[in-house]
């Protein structure tokens, strides 16, 4: 099929009715790539439809096997047995690994996975490899994700009988912009163009907005808003959002997220069952990987059963001489994972606080994600929100992908005669963005939970007399010092007119557009006047690549504080 | 009409990257007339201001925050929220009815107006400054609000150079 000769932008000049038919071929599809499962959905002209693979599954396992050298993913291939996934040839949990360096605790926690994750703790990407015919075949999370996306894309193209190019992907709230570029790269490798990367709970919020609009259609624009709290916990991440909804507009008030999920529950449980697992599996031979796989499957199974029964008998022969035979009850499971549950609670509290919303004002509490079946998760969400009931209107495993498909249709400029696409998400920034100044401090310029698109600026000045250059380090995160945050990039501004310290004025402005692209402008102002001494520099972020942890340190070693900045007291 | 008032550093300063942005991302000449939104909000808070000339091009952002949201000065919180939502549906870059050249500048302005007016404390403060401003305005007839207006030559220069 040929590429359509029109663009969405030019189409929006025509009327709505014409638009819906002519842009149909360009509707972006929604993809929810989960740590453990993934799904794909599309607006079919009247509603959102989840696509099924040839085995009639709507939810597909997120993994890729490198057996016999030819990679194949969970979309098409059928595992003969769960254990095959754990033979060393299959790579999974890529969402936990993507865009992380080997000093990251999440990467360290992934070392118990039944394939090779090697860390050298120097701030570069970890060595990840699959065991193929007893040889380690190196790969990267981007490659694994791309292979998987190619399969998803092929599956959708066959079913929709059109080429797929534009996608809306859901992402965890806590993803840094650097991780987002990795996701984009994986999509590009698969021949997909990312229209939007949507934090998972905001996709759910959009679906909720649509449902609210359908139930109270005549209420549109009346301004009576409903506040909902969305708690999403999957295998890899936990996200919370507070949204205010009215008339199909979902306004994200606050977001909070962390890399805790079902995988942590599983690992804590595995550690509980076999405390010396680490040392046992240090040598990654085929047998150790097999044992790790066996333990993993048995533990996973037990956790699933504990959602429905109070205790479970675990019997597993690890094959290396050690056998586990144990009865585990629900209390034990909750005890082992106390810290994870505490983190979940604190995320909800933080999100409500950031949204400046009292718990009494929350209308609906929505619980979604793979962990939503766990009784403890249900209870803690209800407890923190002081509720007896959760919102019942959506499938917890399909809500995010449905929201992504809706956003795909809306962002493609589609309209629906029944007003089902009369929707809008007003997003907020999940993490603060700022620069390094005042020594080693992180000075936010766009704070967390700022409505997007956004543009903010701040004035800085020099720390040395006759300083003519300054380095702008752009960071993202919540930490007070820069080391706690993600480095997005850096650039140098030159041409500062020699003057005593504190006199030159350096303006740093940040701009995030609706598609979440970040641009940083920096420039020096002429002393006395307010014209720039030299043209402003405009830099699209992030600019750093792998091993970025090194760069800041190396620059500090090379230049000391000679290129530093401090904030000017008055905020412009 | 000529009446001149103080020019705060912030306004022109802000306008520089602003203009540059519009020139790189918009091909329509009309986009130059868009007023930097944050500057607008700030100016409103900074209080009285007047202008040296009335610009022939109309700024969409002209007038008070209430005018931006197209509501009365005594609008209720519900009316403010509802106005914000309906305007968002038109001016948000994601909205389907949005104009192709929309780059979010209008929406930022609308959101800033909403952010000020939806918070009772900041709304009260703004109402006070609005009262002061209206008194001053009696001496000057123009109500154009672009920061460039305070210094036409500078505006020309930035338009040409960036």
Automatic annotation (TrEMBL), chain A:
Q: Note the InterPro entries from the entry.
A: ATPase_NBD (IPR043129), HSP70_peptide-bd_sf (IPR029047), Hsp_70_fam (IPR013126)
Write down the superkingdom of origin: Eukaryota
Q: Does the keyword Chaperone apply?
A: no
Q: What SUPFAM superfamilies does the annotation carry?
A: Actin-like ATPase domain (SSF53067), Heat shock protein 70kD (HSP70), peptide-binding domain (SSF100920)
> What UniProt keywords apply to this chain's record, in alphabetical order?
ATP-binding, Nucleotide-binding, Stress response
- Is Transcription one of the keywords? no
Which Pfam family, an example, fits this chain?
A: HSP70
Q: Which GO terms describe its molecular function?
A: ATP binding; ATP-dependent protein folding chaperone
PANTHER family, from UniProt? Answer: HEAT SHOCK PROTEIN 70KDA
Q: Which family does the record assign?
A: Belongs to the heat shock protein 70 family.
Task: List the protein's name.
Answer: Heat shock 70 kDa protein 8
Q: Which organism is it from?
A: Ziziphus jujuba (Chinese jujube)
Species classification: Eukaryota, Viridiplantae, Streptophyta, Embryophyta, Tracheophyta
The gene designation is: LOC107423197
Automatic annotation (TrEMBL), chain B:
List the SUPFAM superfamilies hit by this protein, alphabetically: Chaperone J-domain (SSF46565)
Supply the InterPro entries for this chain. Answer: DnaJ_domain, DnaJ_domain_CS, J_dom_sf
Q: Which domain of life is it from?
A: Eukaryota
Q: Which Gene3D superfamilies match?
A: DnaJ domain (1.10.287.110)
**For the J domain, which residue ranges apply?**
64-130
Indicate what this protein is called per its UniProt record.
J domain-containing protein
Organism this protein belongs to: Ziziphus jujuba var. spinosa
């Amino acid at each position: 099929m040929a590429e359509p000769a029109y663009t969405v932008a030019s189409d929006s000049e025509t009327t709505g009715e014409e638009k819906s038919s002519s842009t149909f071929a360009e509707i972006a599809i929604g993809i929810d790539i989960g740590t453990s499962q993934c799904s794909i959905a599309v607006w079919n002209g009247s509603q959102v439809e989840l696509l099924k693979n040839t085995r009639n599954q709507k939810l597909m396992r997120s993994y890729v096997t490198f057996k016999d050298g030819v990679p194949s993913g969970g979309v098409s291939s059928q595992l003969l047995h769960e254990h095959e996934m754990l033979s060393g040839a299959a790579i999974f949990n890529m969402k936990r690994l993507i865009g992380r360096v080997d000093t990251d605790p999440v990467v360290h926690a992934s070392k118990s996975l039944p394939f090779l994750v090697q860390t050298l703790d120097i701030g570069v990407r970890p060595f990840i490899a699959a065991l193929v015919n007893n040889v380690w075949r190196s790969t990267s999370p981007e490659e694994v994700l791309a292979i998987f996306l190619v399969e998803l894309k092929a599956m959708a193209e066959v079913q929709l009988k059109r080429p797929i190019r534009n996608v809306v992907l859901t992402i965890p709230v806590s993803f840094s912009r650097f991780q987002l570029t990795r996701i984009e790269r994986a999509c590009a490798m698969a021949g997909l163009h990312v229209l939007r990367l949507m934090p998972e709970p905001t996709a759910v919020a959009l679906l909720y907005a649509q449902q609210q609009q359908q139930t109270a259609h005549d209420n549109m624009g009346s301004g009576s808003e409903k506040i909902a709290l969305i708690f999403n916990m999957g295998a890899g991440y936990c996200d919370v959002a507070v949204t205010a909804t009215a008339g199909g507009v979902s306004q994200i008030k606050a977001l909070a997220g962390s890399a805790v999920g079902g995988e942590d529950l599983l690992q804590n449980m595995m550690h509980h069952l076999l405390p010396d697992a680490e040392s046992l599996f240090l040598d990654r031979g085929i047998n150790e990987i097999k044992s790790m796989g066996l333990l993993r499957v048995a533990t996973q199974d037990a956790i699933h059963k504990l959602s429905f029964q109070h205790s479970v008998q675990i019997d597993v022969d690890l094959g290396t001489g050690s056998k586990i035979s144990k009865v585990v009850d629900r209390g034990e499971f909750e005890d082992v994972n106390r810290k994870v549950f505490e983190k979940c609670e604190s995320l909800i509290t933080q999100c409500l606080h950031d949204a400046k919303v009292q718990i009494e004002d929350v209308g609906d509490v929505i619980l979604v994600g793979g962990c939503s079946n766990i009784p403890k998760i249900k209870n803690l969400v209800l407890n923190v929100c002081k509720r007896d009931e959760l919102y019942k209107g959506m499938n917890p495993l399909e809500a995010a992908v449905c929201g992504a498909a809706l956003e795909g249709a809306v962002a493609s400029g589609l309209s629906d005669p029944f007003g089902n696409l009369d929707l809008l998400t007003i997003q907020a920034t999940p993490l603060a963005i700022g620069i390094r100044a005042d020594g080693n401090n992180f000075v936010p310029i766009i704070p967390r939970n700022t409505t997007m698109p956004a543009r903010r600026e701040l004035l800085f000045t020099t720390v040395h007399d006759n300083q003519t250059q300054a380095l702008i380090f752009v960071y993202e995160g919540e930490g007070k010092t820069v080391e706690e945050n993600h480095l997005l990039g850096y650039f140098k501004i030159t041409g500062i007119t020699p003057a005593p310290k504190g006199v030159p004025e350096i303006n740093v402005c940040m701009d995030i557009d609706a598609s979440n692209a970040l641009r940083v402008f920096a420039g020096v102002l002429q002393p006395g006047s307010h014209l720039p001494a030299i043209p402003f520099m405009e830099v699209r972020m992030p600019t750093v690549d792998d091993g970025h942890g090194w760069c800041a340190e190396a620059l500090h070693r090379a230049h000391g504080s000679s290129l530093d900045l401090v904030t000017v007291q008055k905020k412009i | 009409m000529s009446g001149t008032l103080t020019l705060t550093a912030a306004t022109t300063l802000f306008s520089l990257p602003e203009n540059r942005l519009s020139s790189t991302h918009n091909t329509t000449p009309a986009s130059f007339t868009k007023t930097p939104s944050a500057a607008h909000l700030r100016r409103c808070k900074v209080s009285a201001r007047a202008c040296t000339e009335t610009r022939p091009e109309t700024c969409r952002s002209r007038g008070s925050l209430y005018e931006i949201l197209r509501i009365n000065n005594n609008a209720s919180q519900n009316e403010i929220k509802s106005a914000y939502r309906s305007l968002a549906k038109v001016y948000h870059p994601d909205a389907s009815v949005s104009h192709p050249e929309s780059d979010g500048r209008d929406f930022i302005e609308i959101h800033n107006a909403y952010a000020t007016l939806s918070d009772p404390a900041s709304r009260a403060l703004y109402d006070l400054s609005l009262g002061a401003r209206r008194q001053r305005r009696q001496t000057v007839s123009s109500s154009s609000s672009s920061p460039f207006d305070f210094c036409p030559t500078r505006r020309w220069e930035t338009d040409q150079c960036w």
